[in-house]
Amino acid sequence: MRILLCVIVLVVVAGCGRTADVPDRRLAPADLLLAPSDLPPGFVVTPLSVADLAASNRVAFDDAKTARFAPDFCRPTADATLNDQLRADNSAVLAARRLNTGLVELVTTQRRDLGADLFATSGRCARTETTITKGNLAGTRIVTEYTALPVPPIDGGLRSGERAVLVRSTVTTTLPDRGVRTQIGFAGYALLNRASSGEVTVQLTVAGEASRATNPPTPGLAPLSDAGFVDLFGKALQKVTNSDR
User: Fold this and answer.
1) CATH fold of 9-244, please?
2) Percent of the chain, pLDDT > 90?
3) Could you tell me the pTM of the whole model?
4) Residue 2: which residues within 8 A CB-CB, separation 6 or more?
5) Pairing mode, if any, of strands 44-46 and 91-98?
6) Is 147 helix (H, G, I), strand (E, B) or coil?
C-alpha cells in the first residue's frame, strides 16, 4: 500500500562540436500499472494519489509504534522505510474496490527491502501477535498468520538481482469485549530491472472484508483464491517484463 527521473545522455555531434539531448525512453511508473481491464471481475477503480497513500500509511505506522509486537524482532520495517521515499515524481498508484474489498497497486522507482519482507513473514515470524496499548481499542489482540505463495511464472523468468515475495495473511482480531473478527488478505512485492523501466518496485495488496465481531469467530471470506492472486500479481509483473519487447 507508489514520473521516472530522466537520465540525460549527451551525445557529441560529429563535425560540429555541439551536443544533442537524447530522450530517455524508459517508461514512467504510471505506464507500468495494471489496466482496469486486468482487474478481477467486480473491481472498480477509485481515486487515490501517491500523497494520499503515503499519508494514510504514515498514520497507521504512527499508531503501530505504541503497540506491543511479539516476537518483537518480527516487527515489519519495509513499508515504513519505503513510504518516506514515495513522491508523485517517482511513483504511481492504482486503487480499486469491490464492495468492502480493497486493492492497491504501487509502482515506484524506489527500492523496497524485500529481504525484510521475507524475514517478517516467514520462519519464526510466520505467526505474530500485536496488542494495542492506547486509545479506545486498548487491549485488542491481533494475531497474523502468513502463508507463502508461489512466484508467478514469467516469460524468461526473473533475471539476476530480481526477486519477488508473495504471501497470504489471515488476521484474527480479538476485541476488548471478546468479540472476534477475521480477515484474509494478500500481498505481493517484487524488484524488477528492465531496460524499458529501470529498477522498479512493484507491489500489490488486496484486503478482504473483515467478518462481523462474534464469539465464536466467523471465518473471514477470501477476496480472491490463492491462485487468483498469484495470477493477478503475474499480470502486474508482466506489465514491466513485457515492456521490453
Assistant:
1) Protein Transport Mog1p; Chain A (3.40.1000)
2) 84
3) 0.88
4) 50, 53, 54, 82, 83, 86, 91, 92, 93, 106, 107, 108, 203
5) antiparallel
6) strand
